[in-house]
Amino acid sequence: MNPSNVAGQAADHREFAKQLHAELAVPTSPDESDRYARWRNTRYATEEEQIAADAQLMAELNGSGWNRFGWPAEVGGLGGDVRHRAVLYEELAAAGLAIPQPTLLLETLGPPLVKFAPALAADLLPRALAGAEWWGQGFSEPEAGSDLASLRTRAVRDGDHYVVSGQKLWTSHGDTASRYVCLVRTGTPESRHRGLSMIVIDRDLPGVTVRPIAIASGRNKLAEVYFDEVRVGVDRLVGTENGGWAVATYLLQFERSVYAWQSAATAFGRFRALVDAAKQNSQADGLVSRIGALYADLVTLRARSAATLRRLADGAPVGPEASIDKIALARVEIGLYDLAAELHGTDFLFGDSAEMNEWRDEWWYSRSATILGGSAEVQRTILADHVLGLPKETVR
Ligand SMILES: Cc1cc2nc3c(=O)[nH]c(=O)nc-3n(C[C@H](O)[C@H](O)[C@H](O)COP(=O)(O)OP(=O)(O)OC[C@H]3O[C@@H](n4cnc5c(N)ncnc54)[C@H](O)[C@@H]3O)c2cc1C
């Protein structure tokens, strides 16, 4: 255990930030080795290599205790709250260390496990924090995305097991994940959100088949996951049978808040790279005011996201206003990578350097910013209905 004064840092996220900043900084003395050197500003050509390296960084941070702050002691944490985790992501990105991909879903799936399935969380979360495994979120299906309550994957109780059959689609990190936290139907087909349950399904169970989906960049970012009469123990239920919607609603608060914060921290890191490139690129002249506008968008996103995180840390509901953060994030991501494409011009299209490959991969992924985690149209409807209180649109 490296961090000094653990209790003090758990009580005060500012002290934690100070210590962590020093921990992640590049050593200034030539006598000191940089224990994070292998992850600093490093990028891997395939998704599988990238996520394996990310997992090793998690193991490193876990061994020294740094990524255990912000999680309760019952699940292997060192105390503190979500602000400690936010500080970790911020400091990692600022130090040129990519935010480990497994943490994106850990931040969405971990909190509901801690709240609704504490025994399961005590078993699984320490492994996830140590980078020994990561999880996929099995919500979307071919006929159920925006309208999640129409999902059809069924779980039928048989003694102390559920027998699960159906298909999940667009599962991020699904190809390399060890487990899937799935929303399944335990009620009648017409029961909509009242007949859903949340359940953890291990990938290595008989009847689970996973097919990777490569996105346009060629990286296996997603997967489709099939369940063919998979027997899952009832102890894998998160919350109560048919109580899955309450778990999903709780989960969504983290997806809306911490994910946006992590993505903003990454975007800030990439913005700094864009500015450095612009300083040396004659084509940047015509882009200066757009770079300034992008910076304003980034700062706006960060301010919004910080306010949402504060609500979460105070135990207040995140609420429908978090849809603003989601829309702001999509605007930043699309704007950032469009600008990078323009700045690098033909190099962006044809260059084969690691740098250009990275910008291109990110540009492709950023196209999904208005879809993943709830489409932009649906977010705007939430704002119109629940924040502005506008009358419902008449369907013609
Ligand atoms: C990169 C990426 C990663 C993802 N990762 C995951 C994951 O890990 N786990 C997971 O479960 N899912 C994941 N998804 C799926 C994602 O949540 C869905 O794609 C999203 O919710 C939209 O659902 P859909 O694709 O079925 O589109 P649909 O719901 O069919 O929507 C199609 C179009 O209709 C519009 N539309 C739909 N309903 C309305 C409405 N009521 N009002 C106005 N417009 C509407 C939408 O805005 C969209 O433009 C991921 C998706 C992407 C692209």
TrEMBL record:
It comes from Gordonia insulae. One of its GO terms (cellular component) is plasma membrane. Its cofactor is FAD. It holds the Pfam family Acyl-CoA_dh_1. Residues 242-387 form the Acyl-CoA dehydrogenase/oxidase C-terminal domain. Its EC number is 1.3.99.-. GO terms for molecular function: flavin adenine dinucleotide binding; oxidoreductase activity, acting on the CH-CH group of donors. Belongs to the acyl-CoA dehydrogenase family. Residues 138-230 form the Acyl-CoA oxidase/dehydrogenase middle domain. Keywords: FAD, Flavoprotein, Oxidoreductase. The keyword Iron does not apply. Residues 47-131 form the Acyl-CoA dehydrogenase/oxidase N-terminal domain. Gene3D superfamilies: Acyl-CoA dehydrogenase/oxidase, N-terminal domain, Butyryl-CoA Dehydrogenase, subunit A, domain 2, Butyryl-CoA Dehydrogenase, subunit A, domain 3. The keyword ATP-binding does not apply. This is Acyl-CoA dehydrogenase FadE17.
